Structure formats: structure tokens, C-alpha cells
TrEMBL record:
Name of the protein in question: Xaa-Pro dipeptidase
Named cofactor requirement(s): Mn(2+)
One GO term describing the cellular component: cytosol
Superkingdom of origin: Bacteria
Length: 432
């Protein structure tokens, strides 16, 4: 695989170079300088939060931890990488990997953080504002011109074959973690132990995950971005929701699975099966020309049908959607673009960079695009029992079967999430 991957990566870099040069011509630029960024210590402390290089830098250079580094693209020169490699006996200095992509760049290892000297009309991309007041002044150039930034974001919306290969590999590695999490749940582990089992099986340290793993037992499965890991196993085991990923060369997997525990009512297991089937039907609809917002609305219609067929809503599926009840059971969007960032850029703009915000009725939707080949998106329908959202409905005449809702409340909720590439013919599910 690695030889193919290397060839694909070289093609990816060459394609990027061509496109950047076209953009430079359109924007009348002599150079684009991409800044990797740098971490700042916690206030009054000598410790730093976890660092991750900026997305546009990573689009070219798969060095997730490169700080104080620059990549300079010009219309004529080879891409020039100034990689900060301090000589320091406290840390291991960054080293270039023995991978063919390095030969695509002129690379300078810089021991003292420094800004490149640039002339002409230059665009600086990245968190260059953070350099103000630091020992390294920002170089000459305009920081983050909005039209150029949205064009660079747009470039990241469509993935090259190299990027899709990386996303598939990230999924393969994450899958091993999910299997280990499921086994740990069967063994009555606490959330922390499930998390550790996940990390071990997916071969990653916690600071390298693409987003904080969500490992929720019981009611915690109904907290959308649940952020703790309980140290103790709860007495009863109703459910486990694991939303956890893996990076591969910077590219993210974002997979969710939900399992019923031995103490869950039978309906909960049936609902999990129904949500898997819903996820698969939505994926089967993916093809070029499909409107993602329309797919999100299809999710709500079919969620309404699931609520009716499982006796949670004693009315029609149409009324369930129209009255906003499905939104109380699923307050998030169908999914988002996926790439170097888990919620990748350009989801809420048109191909020409005009804003395309989520509609007021679905404010949490992160992707409003018409699907075209090369996009990679998540499909993640959910069904939750969230007291904060359901309580206000108790005072209305909405025909909700509250006795069943109360029975299911300890299970928290369900989310099932796969990662899908849009192809010329339809779709390719990257999640094994
Ligand atoms: N893991 C966050 C999300 O699914 O969007
Ligand atoms: Mn997720
Ligand atoms: Mn997601």
C-alpha cells in the first residue's frame, strides 16, 4: 500500500501546486505563505495545550505537530518548507520522515523560530495574528484575505484519491477501536476503561485523537458531546454510545456506534436496529447532484416513521416532523464534511464562496451543499432521550407515548455514524 500511497501523495501535491498557482494568478499574488501555527502556554504556566498544525498547511505537509513552520508557494519556485526544528536537549527535535513527499519540497530545518522574508504581493494564511507581540514578527503580507481563504477552503471540500485513501485507512484503524470498546462494554467496564481499550486497539495516544472521544454509558449516551470518562462502572448497563475516530496522516475518521446493554428494554435494541437501517438507507441515496439539506430532511421524515412504528409517537410521521417533535429527538444535523478537520471547512458556502448558512429551522446543520464527486461526508442520524428538549413537550398535546419515553430515558440515546465518499457513480462507504 505504501508505494501506491506515496505515488498518490505526489500526484496530490502536484495538483495542489497547479491549483494554487492558478489562484495566485487570479488574485494577483507573488506568494502564498502558509503558517503552521504555534501553541501558547497556559496562563502563568510553562505547560502547553495540545497543538495541531493549521488545516491549509496540513493539506500539503503531513506533519501534524509542526509548530512555527512555514510553507511558501510561488508561481515559479518549488514549494519551500521552513520546518522549525529547535536544537533542544529537553525534547526530541523534529526529523523529516523517510518518505518520498519530502522530495517535492525545498526544505530548510530552522533551529530558531523565524518568519520567511517575502516580497511582492503576499497572502499569509493561518493564525499569523498570534505572532503579534511574539519575538517573531509576522512577515510582510496580507493576513487571510477572505476571498482567498474561501477559495482554499473550497479546494479542501473535494478530496484527491490520496486523501480518500488516508480517510479509508483512518476508518480501518478506528474500527479496531470500536470493536475493542464493544468488547469492554460486554465485560462491564467503566467509561474510562472503554476509552483506554479504544485507544489501545486503535493504536493512538489520547492527545492524537481527531476530537475528544465520546464514550457515554446509559444517560451519558444522550449528551451529544459528552466529555467525561467515569472511573466506575454503573450498576445497571442500559447502553453504550462511542463516537470516536483516528487520524491517518492528518485525515480523520469519525465513527459512532451504539450498543444495548443487558438492562435495556427490548425496544431500545429494536430502535438501534432501526437507526442502523435508517443510516444505510440515507447512504444508499448518496450520489452526485443530491442536496445534503434534502437528505437531512429525509432523515427527519424517516425518523418520524421510526417514532410512529415503535409507538413513541401516536400520530402521523408527517405531523411528528411538522410539529418539531423529531427535532426534539434529534437536535443535530445529519452530518458534515470530513477531512483534515473532523468538521471540515466549506460546508456552509457555495462553490464560488458565497455564504450558504443552515436554515433557521435546522441551525445545527454543518453542510448545506449539493453533493459532487470527491466530497467526503458523514451520515449520522440520531435518536435521543434528552430531558432538556423533551420536558417542554410534556405540557403540550403532542401525542408522545411518555410511558415508553420514560422507560427509554436511562438509555440516553442512539447515534450511528459512517464516513462516505461521493463518487461519479454514487458513493463509497469508507467505514468498514
Ligand atoms: N464526533 C463529532 C461529530 O460526529 O460530529
Ligand atoms: Mn462523530
Ligand atoms: Mn460527525
Amino acid at each position: 500500500m505504501s508505494e501506491t500511497l506515496n505515488r498518490l501523495q505526489q500526484a496530490h501535491i502536484n495538483q495542489l501546486l497547479d491549483t494554487y498557482r492558478t489562484l495566485m494568478q487570479q488574485h494577483g499574488l507573488d506568494a502564498i505563505a502558509l503558517y503552521s501555527g504555534h501553541a501558547a502556554p497556559h496562563y502563568g504556566d510553562d505547560q502547553f495545550p495540545e497543538f495541531q498544525a493549521a488545516g491549509h498547511f496540513l493539506h500539503w505537509v503531513p506533519l501534524l505537530e509542526a509548530q512555527h513552520s512555514w510553507l511558501i508557494i510561488t508561481p515559479v519556485d518549488r514549494p519551500r518548507l521552513m520546518l522549525h526544528a529547535p536544537t533542544d536537549f529537553w525534547h526530541l527535535s523534529p526529523e523529516l520522515p523517510d518518505e518520498p513527499w519530502v522530495s517535492e519540497f525545498d526544505i530548510e530545518l530552522v533551529s530558531e523560530a523565524a518568519a520567511p522574508s517575502l516580497s511582492g504581493k503576499v497572502a499569509l494564511i493561518g493564525n499569523v495574528e498570534a505572532l503579534q507581540g511574539s519575538p517573531v514578527a509576522p512577515p510582510h503580507g496580507e493576513a487571510n484575505p477572505p476571498t482567498l481563504v474561501s477559495a482554499l477552503d473550497e479546494l479542501r471540500m473535494h478530496k484527491s484519491t490520496y486523501e480518500i485513501t488516508c480517510l479509508r485507512e483512518a476508518n480501518r484503524l478506528a474500527k479496531a477501536g470500536h470493536e475493542a470498546a464493544q468488547a469492554a462494554f460486554a465485560g462491564a467496564s467503566a467509561e474510562l476503561d472503554i476509552q483506554l481499550a479504544y485507544l489501545g486497539a486503535s493504536r493512538q495516544r489520547e492527545s492524537h485523537v481527531p476530537y475528544d472521544n465520546i464514550v457515554g454509558l446509559n444517560q451519558h449516551a444522550g449528551v451529544l458531546h459528552y466529555q467525561h470518562y467515569d472511573l466506575h462502572s454503573p450498576g445497571k448497563r442500559y447502553s453504550l454510545l462511542v463516537d470516536a475516530g483516528r487520524r491517518f496522516r492528518g485525515y480523520c475518521a469519525d465513527i459512532t456506534r451504539t450498543w444495548a446493554g443487558p438492562d435495556a428494554p427490548a425496544t431500545f435494541g429494536d430502535l438501534i436496529d432501526a437507526m442502523h437501517a435508517l443510516k444505510d438507507r440515507l447512504i444508499a441515496d448518496i450520489a452526485p447532484g443530491v442536496d445534503y439539506l434534502g437528505l437531512h430532511q429525509t432523515m427527519h421524515r424517516q425518523l418520524g416513521e421510526i417514532l410512529v412504528s415503535h409507538d413513541l409517537y401516536r400520530g402521523t410521521a408527517e405531523a411528528c416532523v411538522e410539529s418539531g417533535v423529531t427535532r426534539a429527538f434529534c437536535p443535530h444535523g445529519l452530518g458534515h464534511s470530513l477531512g483534515i478537520q473532523v468538521h471540515d471547512v466549506a460546508g456552509l458556502q457555495t462553490p464560488s464562496g458565497e455564504p450558504a448558512p443552515a436554515p433557521e429551522t435546522h441551525p445545527a446543520l454543518r453542510l448545506t451543499r449539493t453533493l459532487t464527486p470527491g466530497m467526503v461526508v458523514t451520515i449520522e442520524p440520531g435518536l435521543y432521550f434528552i430531558p432538556m428538549l423533551l420536558s417542554p413537550l410534556r405540557d403540550t398535546d403532542a401525542p408522545i407515548n411518555w410511558a415508553l419515553v420514560d422507560q427509554l430515558m436511562p438509555c440516553g440515546g442512539i447515534r450511528i455514524e459512517d464516513n462516505i465518499a461521493v463518487t461519479e457513480q454514487g458513493f463509497d462507504n469508507l467505514t468498514p
